[in-house]
């Protein structure tokens, strides 16, 4: 057992200490108890009150005789009998448990919501029945007067399952995209649902109508200066009028349901979602929990009473034993944490011996919890204009920053960014408008691909085939938004792999652009009239074979085009090289060069210098340059004999003679006869005669 006193309030951790493995014999257990002081001092309140890997949810039955907990791995539920302080039974599942409810006063009627969309019912004997809901569930509540089980999840519907009739009733349609949590008031049976958009919708189960809406996200932004939209993550009633709302950004809002504004807002300062909100019955205290801490504070003033911090693991669920000072916390550890706070109430009747033990336990003090302070770095101080407060009592140095009073921080934030809320509001309105526009216009990136997908979607709608389009799939959203994913149509790989890209011609593209807007109005009108959107069109049996032939022809044609482009590119490169060589030659030959003769030498003309240069060249290079056929040795002294032919000169003379002969024959044919009226010659013949 571990004792701590944050803010001078004693908290007893009954689950602290080492646990002994089950496979140890009694003899070894007694030996360890004698040797190890920590094991001897530990208190095992409930035997085997743990899970193999981690625990997710803890509940106490209405009669207070049983404690039920779910965990993993393997997914299971364990029931503990507090009268015997031991486990009563254990049952395993096929999927993890999201949450569960106890329908009876004891453990005889249970309902579990699983992660695979199944709702499973258990009786005292074991598994009773299971059924599936259309969408993934996130929370559920049982309405005792009508025997209705309300289930909310990843959708706007609130599913109603009547357990007396054994069938689904018409669901309640909310205005949200997703519903994260729900709660039912035990006095007047009002149903409230927390949405992803940060609103709380109230429903009357008798009339099945929405009777009110609270905009919690708006109050979180205006009062706590949070970034982003806050969704509702936890709900809890106290009495008939008080409602506690936990948000995903770490705020707890307390409402009087007769007003649309919270009478108090508490910020956890961690930025983590609020997992549970609960009220202490005997005192005006609120218990709010996120992954890192459980804060207990006054409902009217918000003053911190005490807190329980997570040492190494994350908190998952909070369960307060009614009318006592004991609570259970499910966490990411094998042990289910058990805390006892005498200031909140006495110990439960099944462990009344704790009251006599608490006086003898050791105390380990802790530092005061800074609840109403905000931690800021030095750069944030400069941005807020508070750097002149360094060294004063208003800033308390801690690690790499400072603690500043939250009231001073909010005032400085308002002065530094007076229009932050207005800019946030305009940004959200602009995002909403852009989302609506995205459904009516083509994307900025890969428009041709989008048109092709729209064409395929239209064909599937005509054939009444329902499927998720790539344009509406979030996994491929960046394909039509990020310019880095733009398709390069000039790439060789694209042209070879997509030879039938021209399947959508320009006329079809223009037609599709017009149909994008027209289709939406047609669908609205058809739904209002009660007619189907389109009729099923018959499939063409020979379409697949025709497409294959067309694809083969286009592929061959594309190969030829690529070859011609490669040849043309090579020819252009050669032409540029020759042109550059010719320009270099003209530039070097156009300007005269002067040479200075040495003393004692005479100028013998240009050919002498050229001959001297040629003599400096090797014989093999001279043979290649002058076109000699063969060179052979005569004797061993070094004499050589060279034979060559003048084929190039003969070929040139022959070509000139043939051209002259061809010109004479063409001249005779084009000469008109005497006395005949002739038409003027065409332009190309006149130029030829010239």
Task: Outline the structure in words.
The protein is an alpha+beta fold and 690 residues long. The protein has a domain at 2-365: Methylamine Dehydrogenase, Chain H (7 Propeller), CATH 2.130.10.10. It has 15 helices and 34 strands. The protein has a five-stranded antiparallel beta sheet, with no helix packed on it. A hairpin with a 3-residue loop joins strand 12 (148-153) and strand 13. Helix 8 (447-462) packs across helix 10. The chain is elongated. It starts with a strand and ends with a helix. The model is unreliable at 362-368, 526-543 and 607-613 (pLDDT under 50).
List the defining traits of the structure above.
690 residues; 30% helix; four-stranded antiparallel β-sheet; 34 strands; alpha+beta
List the helices and strands and how they pair.
Blueprint: E1 2-4, E2 11-13, H1 26-35, H2 37-41, E3 54-60, E4 66-72, E5 76-81, E6 86-92, E7 97-102, E8 110-114, E9 118-122, E10 127-132, E11 137-143, E12 148-153, E13 157-162, E14 167-173, E15 179-184, E16 191-195, E17 199-204, E18 209-215, H3 216-224, E19 232-238, E20 242-247, E21 251-256, E22 262-267, E23 276-279, E24 285-289, E25 293-298, E26 304-309, E27 315-320, E28 326-331, E29 337-340, H4 354-357, E30 373-377, H5 378-384, E31 395-398, E32 401-405, H6 406-416, H7 420-438, H8 447-462, H9 492-497, H10 506-529, H11 543-590, H12 606-616, H13 619-626, E33 630-634, E34 639-643, H14 647-670, H15 683-689
Antiparallel strand pairs: 1-2, 2-29, 3-4, 4-5, 5-6, 7-8, 8-9, 9-10, 11-12, 12-13, 13-14, 15-16, 16-17, 17-18, 19-20, 20-21, 21-22, 23-24, 24-25, 25-26, 27-28, 28-29, 30-32, 31-32, 33-34
Region (Disordered): 521-600, 648-690
Protein name: Nucleolar protein 10
InterPro entries: Beta-prop_NOL10_N (IPR056551), NOL10/Enp2 (IPR040382), NOL10_2nd (IPR056550), NUC153 (IPR012580), WD40/YVTN_repeat-like_dom_sf (IPR015943), WD40_repeat_dom_sf (IPR036322), WD40_rpt (IPR001680)
């Amino acid at each position: 057992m571990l004792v701590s006193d944050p803010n001078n309030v004693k908290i007893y951790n009954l689950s602290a200490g080492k646990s002994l493995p089950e496979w140890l014999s009694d003899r070894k257990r007694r030996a360890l108890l004698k040797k190890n002081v920590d094991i001897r001092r530990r208190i095992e309140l409930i035997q085997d009150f743990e899970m193999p890997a981690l625990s997710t949810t803890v509940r106490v039955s209405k009669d207070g005789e049983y404690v039920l907990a779910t965990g993993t791995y393997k997914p299971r539920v364990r029931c503990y009998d507090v009268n015997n302080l031991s486990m009563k039974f254990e049952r395993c599942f096929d999927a993890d448990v999201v949450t569960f409810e106890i329908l009876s006063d004891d453990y005889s009627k249970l309902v579990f919501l699983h992660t695979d969309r199944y709702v499973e019912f258990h009786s005292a004997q074991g598994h009773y029945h299971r059924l599936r809901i259309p969408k993934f569930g996130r929370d559920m509540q049982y309405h005792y007067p009508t025997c209705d089980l309300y289930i909310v999840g990843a959708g706007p519907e609130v599913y109603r399952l009547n357990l007396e009739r054994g069938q689904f009733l018409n669901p309640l349609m909310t205005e949200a995209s997703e519903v994260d949590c729900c709660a039912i008031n035990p006095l007047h049976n009002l149903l409230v649902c927390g949405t992803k958009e940060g609103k709380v919708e109230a429903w009357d189960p008798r009339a099945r109508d929405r009777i009110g809406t609270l905009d919690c996200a708006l109050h979180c932004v205006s009062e706590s200066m949070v970034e982003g939209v806050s969704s509702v993550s936890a709900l809890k009633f106290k009495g008939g009028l008080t409602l506690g709302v936990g948000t995903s950004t770490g705020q707890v809002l307390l409402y009087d349901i007769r007003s649309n504004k919270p009478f108090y807002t508490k910020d956890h300062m961690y930025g983590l979602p609020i997992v549970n909100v609960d009220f202490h019955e005997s005192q005006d205290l609120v218990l709010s929990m996120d992954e890192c801490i459980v804060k207990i504070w006054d409902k009217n003033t918000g003053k911190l009473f005490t807190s329980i911090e997570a040492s190494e693991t994350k908190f998952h669920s909070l369960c307060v034993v009614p009318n006592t000072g004991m609570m259970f916390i499910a966490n990411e550890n094998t042990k289910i944490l058990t805390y006892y706070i005498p200031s909140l109430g006495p110990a439960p009747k099944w462990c009344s011996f704790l009251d006599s033990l608490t006086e003898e336990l050791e105390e380990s003090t802790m530092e005061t919890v800074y609840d109403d302070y905000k931690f800021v770095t030095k750069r944030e101080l400069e941005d807020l204009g508070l750097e002149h407060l360094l060294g004063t009592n208003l800033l308390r140095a801690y690690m790499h920053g400072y603690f500043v009073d939250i009231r001073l921080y909010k005032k400085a934030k308002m002065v530094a960014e007076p229009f932050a809320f207005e800019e946030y509001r305009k940004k959200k309105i602009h995002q909403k408008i852009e989302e609506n526009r995205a459904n009516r216009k083509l994307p900025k990136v890969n428009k041709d691909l989008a048109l092709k997908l729209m064409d395929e979607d239209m064909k599937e709608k005509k054939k009444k085939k329902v499927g998720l389009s790539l344009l509406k799939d979030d996994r491929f959203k960046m394909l039509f938004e990020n310019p880095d994913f733009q398709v390069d149509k000039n790439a060789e790989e694209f042209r070879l792999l997509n030879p039938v890209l021209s399947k959508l011609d320009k006329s079809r593209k223009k037609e599709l652009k017009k149909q994008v807007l027209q289709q939406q109005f047609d669908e609205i009108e058809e739904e209002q009239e009660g007619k189907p959107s389109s009729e099923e069109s018959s499939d063409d049996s020979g379409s697949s074979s025709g497409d294959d032939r067309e694809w083969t022809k286009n592929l061959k044609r594309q190969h030829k085009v690529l070859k011609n482009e490669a040849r043309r590119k090579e020819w252009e490169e050669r032409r540029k090289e020759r042109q550059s060589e010719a320009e270099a030659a003209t530039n070097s030959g156009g300007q005269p060069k002067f040479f200075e003769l040495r003393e004692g030498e005479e100028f013998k003309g240009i050919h002498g210098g050229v001959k001297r240069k040629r003599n400096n060249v090797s014989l093999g290079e001279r043979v290649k340059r002058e076109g000699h056929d063969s060179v052979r040795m005569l004797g061993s002294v070094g004499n050589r004999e060279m034979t060559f032919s003048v084929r190039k000169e003969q070929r040139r003379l022959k070509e000139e003679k043939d051209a002259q002969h061809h010109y004479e024959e063409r001249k005779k044919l084009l000469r008109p006869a005497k006395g005949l009226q002739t038409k003027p010659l065409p332009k190309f013949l006149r130029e030829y005669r010239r």
